[in-house]
Amino acid sequence: MNVLIIGNGGREHALAWKIKQSSLCDEVFVAPGNAGTAAIARNVAVPVDDFEGIGKICKDHNIGLVVVGPEGPLVAGIRDYFEQDASLSAIPLVGPGRSGARLEGSKDFSKQFMLRHGIPTARAKAFLEANLEEAMEYISTCKPPIVLKADGLAAGKGVIISLSQREAREELRQMLVNRKFGEASAKVLVEEFLNGIELSVFVLTDGERYVILPEAKDYKRIGEGDTGLNTGGMGAISPVPFAGPDFMRKVEERVVVPTIQGLKKEGIPYRGFIFIGLMNVGGDPYVIEYNVRMGDPETQAVLPRIKSDFGELLLATAKGQLPDLPLEVDDEHAATVVMVAGGYPNEYKKGNRISGLDQDHDALIFHAGSALRDSDVVTNGGRVLAITGRDGSLDGALKKAYDAAARISWDGVYFRRDIGKDLLKLA
Ligand code: AMP
Ligand code: GLY
């Protein structure tokens, strides 16, 4: 079977690496991919939102499975496009259609969905610009910190946590009236603040059955000690020491099962990943958000721990035939450190030559924003590499990741030195 992966990040490099190990897999194609995927698979220069171009690759290369990495094409309806085209509709695809992708594409939809199905989440109310006065009055009844969320996709930036009612009113005006996040903030949720510790849980479902993949914790802020601006993610670890069997049982019973049953009851077909962003509040899980894809960089820590044939699992998901078998997971720890271009998440330079990649590293090196220039690998994005160490202990996994990171460099390279440190005493 030939497999096509859509995307160009570290997540997609990790997917390509894992799927290549499947007994079902002949050749892996990545559209558009990066310098890392070019080394293990065939890159095709088609952007993720060019559905016609993607359809053509499927026909030209006899693709037997499509795996969609990022949310953009899912929310834009790549599955619906495939299903409506007679020459593409038989190709199994991992990822929900437009209706299911609303779980990520609209925070108001996902909040209402959770409320309809009794899934624990923070209280929230949605407002449009036309209800500005009402929204301002509502904020006067909220106890800070106050969470404001743009309804639509905002590249992970659409959440503001205000420490006072005054600041929240000003931010809300910026979002609703000045469209701080464009049309994504034409509607805003004002949400109660949840005090706890976050983790990410990943589910693969065919709409009927599901498997829960290893959980992970990611580190979103640019600065050490979780300070500074939000990023796509600066590191991840798996397993998560505070997510023991009791907690995970609660997650399955209170969140995973009602989510899948809720989709079914609402007649929303769903074949793909559900990424559940959770807050552990005093031992109880609350949903912060749903994503309809895997996380980046969580994928780079989660997939290396899966021992089952992942290509088989993905194909079964896409065909609606997920087996009732337990997932085989390695007990080892995985720790991922993301190396970024200096300046990220603000402006940064591209095109800097990366050195040290070809040494012998006791770690997995996944590429994100990288490209080939002549015979060099150069930086081509904010998040450039994700380095995953694996070991029997979290400490050992971190050490392997950091040892490799220390030997790779480019002009302006930056990475956080404290990934996983907060959890070492629990691990
Ligand atoms: P999101 O874009 O929904 O992932 O939100 C970004 C970040 O904001 C999350 O990872 C949380 O750290 C934080 N956040 C979102 N909602 C809440 C909430 N209700 N209470 C506390 N923190 C939140
Ligand atoms: N690392 C968070 C995300 O992929 O959304």
Description:
The protein is globular. Helices cover 30% and strands 27% of the residues. The protein has 427 residues and is α+β, with helices and mostly antiparallel strands. The longest helix has 21 residues. It folds into 3 domains: 86 residues, Rossmann fold, CATH 3.40.50; 70 residues, ATP-grasp fold, A domain (Dna Ligase, domain 1, 2-Layer Sandwich), CATH 3.30.1490.20; 227 residues, D-amino Acid Aminotransferase, Chain A, domain 1 (2-Layer Sandwich). The mean pLDDT is 95. The two termini are 40 Å apart. The site of adenosine monophosphate has 12 residues, from strand 17. The site of glycine has 8 residues, from loops.
Summarize the model shown.
The chain has 427 residues and is α+β, with helices and mostly antiparallel strands. The chain has 13 helices and 23 strands. It folds into three domains: 2-87, 3-Layer(aba) Sandwich (Rossmann fold); 123-192, ATP-grasp fold, A domain (Dna Ligase, domain 1); 197-423, ATP-grasp fold, B domain (D-amino Acid Aminotransferase, Chain A, domain 1, 2-Layer Sandwich).
**DSSP helix count?**
13
- Spatial shape: globular
Q: Report low-confidence residues grouped into runs of 5 or more.
A: none
Bound molecules: adenosine monophosphate, glycine
What is the percentage of strand-forming residues? 25-35%
Q: Can you tell me the number of structural domains?
A: 3
CATH class of the largest domain: Alpha Beta
